[in-house]
């Protein structure tokens, strides 16, 4: 078999599953071969959530969880490879994003040693457990070079989705949302727009503990947008930033939301959800509106594409630009990010840059990630 198959592993801020994609990368051709989405056990999700905020005994908890997640990523890879009728020897490498537990990007144009980003899911454990060379720790080299360390997907979006003569935006709606601006074949800009699913999911779980999310946005659609709360949420300082920028759940979380709610009379929970959905749609649309690009097309990917109410509001705010999902461009919207990290592994092994300085603000192009050799005896 031609050695062009890579595995991409992605676990995002929702921490619900390990997106596992086998991807064909060769000569500019990028295509999905097989996918799987094994769930992350509830107790592991809980420990990741706890580790995402300062607490006691952090080093011990981090070290244990790092190894445990590495094994879960290895198991997800082997299961996907087996179900696809392949063997580990058929896979050139794994590109593992890991699980972000902290993201502290620079607030200015240059990073220093106070800025850091940390993803866990030990690549040594992945390489040892699968026998497949593993590329991981993609974000920290970009940050060391003065960048935000995120978003990294725009370079992949340009490789996979750019089209001569067409101005496009690719919007990934994961826990956070990010946008990529493509002027024909040129990658102009990319940035986090603010929250994607994270506030909606957190608020839904608070009031419906058996839910993982608000299915189709139906709960939000049952409520009414509160203009005063919406105006308050739109005052978040991150939304005023321009140029290379990234954010995380360190800024958009329940504590911040509670502080905003405390400034208003009590609201029905469904009205808060409706307002959060409108807030998410507006922040994505404003991010695109503030760019110097007359957009012809906008394509969405990520878990947020399944929130019917959110896409309806986003379409409204983006008019007259048309909004579709990346399935129109040939890649299922659920698998764009996992595919991106398979592509990044391919870039790294080829000695090619994986970041886009116009997006992250890094001093220049950099080969990203560390390479952990596999043991082909597996």
In a few lines, what is going on in this structure?
The protein is an alpha/beta fold and 378 residues long. It has helices at 42-51, 58-83, 123-130, 139-144, 153-161, 198-207, 218-221, 227-233, 254-261, 269-289, 308-318, 336-349, 357-360, and strands spanning 5-11, 19-26, 29-36, 91-104, 116-120, 134-136, 167-173, 176-183, 186-195, 297-301, 322-325, 370-372. It is built from 13 helices and twelve strands.
Summarize the structure in words.
It contains 13 helices and twelve strands. It is an alpha/beta fold. The strands form two sheets. Strands 1, 2, 3, 4, 5, 6 and 12 form a seven-stranded mixed beta sheet that branches. The protein has a five-stranded mixed beta sheet with strand order 9-8-7-10-11, sandwiched between helices. A hairpin with a 2-residue loop joins strand 2 and strand 3. Helix 2 packs parallel to helix 3 and helix 8 crosses helix 10. The chain is globular. The mean pLDDT is 94.
């Amino acid at each position: 078999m031609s050695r062009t198959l890579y595995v991409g592993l992605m676990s995002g801020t929702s921490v619900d599953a390990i997106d596992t994609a086998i991807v064909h990368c060769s000569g500019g051709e990028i295509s999905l071969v097989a996918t799987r989405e094994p769930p992350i056990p509830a107790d592991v999700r809980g420990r990741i959530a706890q580790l995402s905020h300062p607490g006691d005994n952090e080093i011990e908890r981090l070290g244990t969880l790092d190894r445990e997640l590495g094994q879960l990523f290895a198991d997800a890879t082997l299961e996907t490879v087996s179900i696809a009728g392949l063997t580990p020897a058929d896979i050139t490498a794994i590109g593992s994003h890991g699980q972000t537990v902290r993201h502290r990007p620079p607030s200015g144009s240059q990073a220093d040693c106070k800025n850091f980003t940390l993803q866990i899911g030990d690549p040594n454990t992945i390489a040892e457990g699968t026998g497949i060379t593993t590329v991981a720790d993609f974000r920290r080299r970009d940050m060391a070079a003065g960048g935000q360390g995120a978003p990294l997907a725009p370079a992949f979006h340009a490789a996979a989705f750019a089209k001569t003569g067409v101005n496009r935006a690719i919007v990934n709606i994961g826990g956070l949302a990010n946008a990529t601006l493509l002027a024909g074949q040129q990658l102009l800009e990319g940035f986090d727009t603010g929250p994607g699913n994270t506030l909606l999911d957190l608020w839904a779980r608070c009031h419906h503990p058996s839910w993982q999310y608000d299915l189709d946005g139906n709960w939000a659609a049952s409520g009414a947008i509160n203009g005063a709360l919406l105006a308050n949420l739109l005052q978040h300082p991150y939304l005023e930033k321009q140029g290379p920028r990234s954010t995380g759940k360190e800024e958009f979380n329940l504590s911040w939301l509670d502080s905003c709610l405390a400034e208003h009379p009590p609201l029905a929970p469904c009205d808060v959800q409706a307002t959060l959905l409108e807030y998410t749609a507006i922040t994505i649309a404003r991010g695109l509106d503030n760019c110097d690009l007359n957009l012809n097309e906008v394509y969405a990917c990520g878990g947020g594409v399944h929130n019917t109410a959110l896409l309806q509001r986003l379409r409204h705010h983006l008019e007259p630009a048309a909004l579709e999902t990346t399935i129109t461009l040939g890649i299922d919207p659920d698998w764009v990010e996992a595919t991106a990290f398979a592509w990044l592994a391919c870039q790294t092994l080829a000695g090619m840059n994986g970041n886009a300085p116009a997006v992250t603000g890094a001093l220049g192009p950099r080969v990203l990630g560390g390479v952990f050799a596999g043991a082909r005896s597996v």
